[in-house]
Amino acid sequence: MFHRSERLLLRPPWPEDWKQVLGGIADEGVVRNLARAPWPYNPTDARQFVELPIDPMFPRFLITRADNAMLVGCIGIDRNEGEVELGYWIGRQHWGQGYATEAGRAVLEVARMLGHRRIVAGHFLDNPASGRVLGKLGFEPTGIVRPRHSCGRGEAVLAAEYELDLAAESGLAVQAA
Question: Which residues form the N-acetyltransferase domain (predicted)?
């Protein structure tokens, strides 16, 4: 699956992308904000990531610039504890340029097209920039802050939880009688 936004092309990872993935994510400042990526992140991790099968209902995309195919990061939706969860990372050299928000909007369009009705997301409390991105995407804080394991940090870290009701947003919510 591919998806195009104003500046970005979201596309599936291919095995030959492992070096670009490694170059973007092998930064402790990036990995420390992720729940599932290990630190240090090495070539084997990158190869395994790009070779993972992709469930069509839970797509994972490389975020690339549409004008030059430069890798910006990765984004996708996945199952987590019975929920549909949005996750992403942006390479440090691309921080602060609006790519996370733009890619997030694109993935939420895909999620709607796939029929997902509710998406959850979260961020570690020491990464408030990610919370601002989630707010721009329309996510609402649930008020829940709880420890979540960070593979890269090797420990549980407090994370704020958010949710987005795609059904209500689309006017699909069932009205109570």
Answer: 8-167
